[in-house]
Specification:
It comes from Comamonas avium. This is Response regulator. It holds the Pfam family Response_reg. With 122 residues, this protein is α/β, with parallel strands linked by helices. The protein has one domain: Response regulator (Rossmann fold), CATH 3.40.50. It is built from 5 helices and 5 strands; from the N terminus they run E-H-E-H-E-H-E-H-E-H. A 5-stranded parallel sheet has the order 2-1-3-4-5, sandwiched between helices. The longest helix has 14 residues. The radius of gyration is 13 Å and the shape is globular. It starts with a strand and ends with a helix. The model has no long low-confidence stretch (mean pLDDT 96).
Length: 122
Amino acid sequence: MTLQTFFVEDNATIRENLIETLLELSDVNAIGYAETEAEGIAWLTDPHNHWDLAIVDLFLRQGSGLGVVAACQNRKPGQRVIVLSNYATLDVRQRCKELGVDAIFDKSNEIDALLDFCMEMT
């Protein structure tokens, strides 16, 4: 099963490299992206948009990934939300868990774990 994946990441270089890596090493289809909290919430909560996985950064050009994650708490069964951040501290991990995040990964050293997560979903 190909994961229909939406990205909430404001850094174009990171986003493009992440998408390229996931396309090459897992069964992911990049269906779009948002660079701000408002854009991410609007897209992910629109019932006309079909997605399996949302990958959300915490620090965005405008707003916060935590707002995006909070807006996704009532997502459909089978939809997964993960956080990919350089700030995956214990406190951040706990807050994400409270908001219903399925997983959180550190950009600097947990990309392999992210890939494993994606492969397990397919």
